[in-house]
Specification:
alpha/beta; Rossmann fold; seven-stranded parallel sheet; 8 helices
């Protein structure tokens, strides 16, 4: 049996994957193999057994029509460190007014003004997977308290409180970070009703743009110029057709663009392939959630 990759992988990483799985590893963009590790494309035949994604969210794959005989797995924890770091970069940029003050000083306006602190603030994390847990670790080092929402609550000493709902988390958090995968249940879940409950001053999105309702968020930023939205993703990216509000910090989806992270994500995916071969697959998802 062979292990097929539908994207380019270096010979060094292929060798490591072969050592982990015991399979012959092949790069074939048009693969119809029994076991596939995929990024943004795949093919299913009557012989396909496993589709293993390299990302935590598989919304880009278009999973409709996959037969129940095929196991589909995501890759939670991949890119968690770099994405969590980027989220905190956005948080600090907002709290410390980095963008505005940098622009002013570049124009020779050297004027001190108050900035904020995140110490003692309540960080609400919507989606407590690999990125969310890493966010909690970093938050602790800044002296923040952590509130989290997840469908499967667990005991975690990093979390002060697991909220019973997203609405409750939004109500009691000073800063909200979104780390949800994009599914048919999470699309547009941050909408005008959710935003109306927010008493804090900053929402950060490092997941997928469509988890947030575009029209509702743009209207919210216009109505509350004193509040901020910091995001690494945008609707219909890379095309930006809307005017980006002044109270929005936007980066071009670079949270996971750290050299070496992709290789590490591939290794993680291969580890789960080995679990599948051993009859103990982890991280299985229901493709119907992504229709």
């Amino acid at each position: 049996m062979d292990l097929f990759f539908t994207f380019n992988v270096s010979p060094e990483v292929l060798k490591k994957c072969q050592e982990i799985t015991g399979l012959n590893c092949i790069v074939d963009r048009e693969s119809t193999g029994e076991i596939q590790i995929v990024a943004n494309k795949y093919k299913v035949t009557e012989n396909t057994k496993l589709i293993q994604g390299i990302y935590a969210s598989l919304d880009a794959l278009g999973l409709k029509g996959i037969p129940p005989t095929v196991t589909v797995c995501n890759n939670p924890g991949a890119f968690a460190d770099s994405t969590a770091e980027h989220a905190f970069a956005l948080i600090l940029a907002s709290a410390k007014k980095i963008i505005d003050l940098n622009n002013k000083t570049h124009h020779r306006i050297f004027k001190k003004e108050p900035v904020d602190t995140i110490h003692g603030k309540k960080l609400g994390i919507i989606g407590y997977g690999g990125i969310g847990r890493r966010m909690a670790e970093i938050a602790r080092s800044f002296g923040m308290s952590v509130i989290a929402y997840t469908r499967r609550q667990i005991e975690d000493p990093l979390v002060d409180q697991f909220a019973v709902s997203i609405a409750r988390l939004i109500q009691i958090s000073d800063i909200v970070v979104i780390t949800l995968p994009l599914t048919n249940k999470t699309k547009g879940i941050i909408n005008k009703d959710a935003l109306a409950m927010f008493n804090g001053n900053l929402i950060v999105n490092v997941s997928r743009a469509d988890v947030v309702n575009k029209d509702d968020m743009l209207a919210y930023m216009k109505r509350y110029p004193e509040k901020s939205f910091a995001t690494d993703v945008w609707w219909n990216e890379p095309r930006i057709s809307e005017e980006v509000p002044a109270n929005c910090i936007l980066t071009p989806h670079v949270g996971d663009e750290v050299p070496g992270d992709l290789d590490q994500a591939i290794i993680m995916a291969c580890t789960n392939v080995k679990s599948f071969l051993d009859g103990k697959p982890q991280n299985m998802i229901d493709p119907a959630e992504y229709y």
